[in-house]
Amino acid sequence: MKNILELHDVSMVYGSVTALRNITLSIRRGEWTAIMGSSGSGKTTLMNIVGCMNKPTHGTVILDGEKISRLNTKDLTAIRRDKIGLIFQEFHLISYLTAVENVMIAQYYHSMADEEEALQALERVGLGHRAGHLPRQLSGGEQQRLCIARALINHPKLILADEPTGNLDESNQAAVLDIFHQLHGEGSTIIVVTHSPEVAEHAERIVQLEFGRMVRDGAPARSMVA
Amino acid sequence: MFLRMIGRAVTRRKRKFLMTAGTVALGISLATAMLNVMLDVGDKVNQALRTYGANITVESRGASLLGDLYGIGEGEGVADKFLREAELPKMKTIFWAFNIVDFTPYLDVRAEAEGIGGVTLLGTWFARRLDIPTGESAHAGVINLKSWWDVQGPWLDDDDADGVMVGGLLADRHKLRIGDRIRVAVEDRTGEKRGAELTVRSLFHSGDKEDEVLLAPLAVVQRLSGLEGKVRRVEVSALTTPENDLAKRAAQNPNSLSRHEWEIWYCTAYASAIAFQIEEVLTESRAKPVLQVAASEGTILQKTSLLMLLLTVLSLACSALAVAGLVTANVMERSTEIGLLKALGAGDGEIVLLVLAETLTAALVGGVVGYVAGLGLAQVIGQSVFGAAVSAKGLVVPLVALLVLAVTTGGSLPACRMLLRLKPAEVLHGR
Questions:
Q1: Using CA of residue A86, residue A88, residue A91, residue A95, what is the dihedral sign?
Q2: B176, B166 contact by CB (below 8 A)
Q3: Distance (Å, whole) CA B32 – CA A143
Q4: ipTM of the complex, rounded to two decimals
């Protein structure tokens, strides 16, 4: 199967507000896609639907060959746990657990916690020496790398990153994007939701949303970065 | 990993942990104290009430029948019905012997006193040492039984052959003072008059009919009346269990009980059961509970226990509400963390289990601290209210454990409902 994700005519309505309108989109395996748009464009709504944290009010979503748009909460949780690695702008780390424990918790709810493997994941993002530190003892960039390590630990089919560099300075942004490049090179499918053209430029495909509609779908253009 | 998460939550979120533990400890300490006092209050109230006199009277069966059937309390027919003094120590051999706190026999005779006229001469034990058939010894007598009597001068000694105590009203009427000598004469059963000169050792006020009598050692009255070894009646003070329907039926007719009921009744310290057992050891005796006293004791005990129970329920309800507030605040504060766990794949049950386990750990610590503090509080209550220590009841331990569980799970319910409704998309992405 070539496509890992397919959206057919997906809409999302909150009361009188339509957050997404008739989105049809396919993402190939191993593709790095950036979803762009200003605030209120519907990109977070799209991420929640693709990340199995919400169901569309209309349309069909197929993830890794499984139709997820009408699954119940329990089944969506299982799909999310098994197939998706989530990376957040706000990191969302557990404050009273160490770096390695924050990674292990994703293993625990997936299958079984393995400290050795969690340490390897931290090594991979350059945090092996910070394994015993609490999140508050890490810099913003380190926290985001920890968040990436947690997302990768269960070898997800799809990495879903929501503004992963939104809270980072330039050097940390570069470090995070390096990791994405590395993952992409290894064949991971990555969807990055961002409002930053600099970040989107690194993707091989950009999907642009405006007022819930998909207004552009194509390769990045140099003019966007200017 | 689950235990590791609990451990980290406990050690790295100490303030929250201690607040929950402290809240549970407060509620449980009150509950422990109240439950221990409640379970012990029966004995304590009983002991307190026992200082106010007898709750069982014993007389000869013949005299009792005349009283029951014809309302005759004294005179011919009653006057010649007696109990045997030598048998009285047997009362300390019955099944409920240790519940018999005190007892004293009485023998009353009419006497002629010089300068006074006709008067009742009442013989009793004061603090008689008893050698019980079991080989043990005990003391019995009016000194302990009537501890509220106001006595001017010393109590008599049982071996005082020429001493007498004078009731307050009689002393006032005839201007009797300590040290006065009274010559009394008693007509024995053969019509022969026996006399003695007695010295007033002390005066007493009982607030009852004894204020009109001359009170002397039992042996003196027996010698003067020629009734050696005989007593008219015995007053018994016993620790009893409040009467219930079973006890009331048994009091009317023990034979009406089934074998099972009879065993329950016989092996419970009902006044009627103790009275029945006294009748078994005293020949031709009739022992009767003083119903007003038994009923009052029951009422006082029930009301005190109810008060304790209400306080226990109230303290636990307050504790549960406080725990509910704390756990709910905790869940609200940690909604992002819980949303994240759900996003990572944790099911609702796993999240509820995690929060409950954290709360129960705090509650367990609080429960142990509260139990120990409650035992201390029970002693403070016992000493300040009853002037005696409250014994720690084993039954309270499992009760407290159940209460900790109930308070914690009950208090966590609102938070758990909130957990189940929490959607990761809402807390992680604000939608």
A1: negative
A2: yes
A3: 48
A4: 0.86
Return mean pLDDT, chain B.
85
Whose tokens are 């009485």? That residue is B106
Is residue A225 pLDDT above 50, yes or no?
no
Contact assessment for residue A161 and residue A43, using Cβ atoms and an 8 Å cutoff: no
Residue B148 Cα distances to B54, B295, B419, angstroms: 12, 21, 64
Which residues lie closer than 8 Å to B150 by C-beta, 6 or more apart?
B168, B204, B205
- Beta-bridge partners for A112: none
DSSP conformational letter for B116: T
Range of the domain at A154: 3-225
**Which of the two residues, B307 and B277, has the higher pLDDT score?**
B277
pLDDT tens-digit series, residues A150-180: 988 988 889 999 888 887 788 888 888 888 8
What is the number of structural domains in chain A? 1
Give tens-digit pLDDT for A82-120. Answer: 999 988 888 889 888 999 999 999 999 888 888 999 999
CA A22-A23-A29 angle, to 5 degrees, is 155
The two tokens of residue A156 are 């997800």
On whether any CB of chain B is under 8 Å from the CB of A110, the answer is yes
| Interatomic CA distance for residues B364 and B362, integer angstroms | 5
- B55, B236 Cβ separation under 8 angstroms: yes
DSSP run (H or E) holding B426: helix B424-429
- Helix residue ranges, H only, A1-139: 43-50, 73-83, 99-110, 115-124
Confidence category of residue B69, pLDDT binned at 50, 70, 90: low
Q: Is 70 exceeded by the pLDDT of residue A226?
A: no
- Which residue of A lies nearest to B334 if distances are taken between CA atoms? A94
Q: Is the pLDDT of residue B73 over 60?
A: no
- Extract the tokens encoding B364: 């367990």
Is B99 in a helix, a strand, or coil? helix
The token pair that represents B365 in the structure block: 């610590």
Q: Which residue has the higher pLDDT, B305 or A66?
A: A66
Mean predicted confidence (pLDDT) in A10-24: 91
Instruction: Name residues whose C-beta falls within 8 Å of residue B116's C-beta, 6 or more positions apart in sequence.
Output: B170, B174, B182
- The H or E element containing residue B275 is helix B271-281
Q: Any long-range contacts for B344-350 (C-beta under 8 Å, 24+ apart)?
A: B344/A81, B344/A86, B344/A105, B344/A106, B344/A109, B344/A110, B344/A150, B345/A77, B345/A78, B345/A80, B345/A81, B345/A82, B345/A106, B345/A109, B345/A110, B346/A77, B346/A109, B347/A74, B347/A77, B348/B419, B348/B420, B350/A109
Using a pLDDT cut of 70, give the percent of chain B over it: 92
pLDDT tens-digit map of B104-134:
999 999 999 988 889 999 999 999 998 888 8
pLDDT at B301 over 60: yes
Q: Residue A51: list chain B partners with CB under 8 A.
A: 343, 425
Q: Tell me how far apart the alpha carbons of residues B8 and B31 are, in angstroms, rounded to a whole number.
A: 30
Chain B positions in Cβ-Cβ contact with residue A95 (cut-off 8 Å): 12, 337
Task: Give the distance from residue B349's alpha carbon to the nearest chain A alpha carbon, in angstroms.
Answer: 11
Judge: A44–B431 Cβ closer than 8 Å, yes or no: yes
We report the CATH number of the domain holding residue A167 as 3.40.50.300
Residues of A in contact with B425 (CB under 8 A): 48, 51, 53-54
Instruction: Kindly list the residues of chain B whose beta carbon comes within 8 Å of any beta carbon in chain A.
Output: 1-2, 4-5, 8-9, 12-13, 336-337, 339-347, 350, 423-425, 428-431
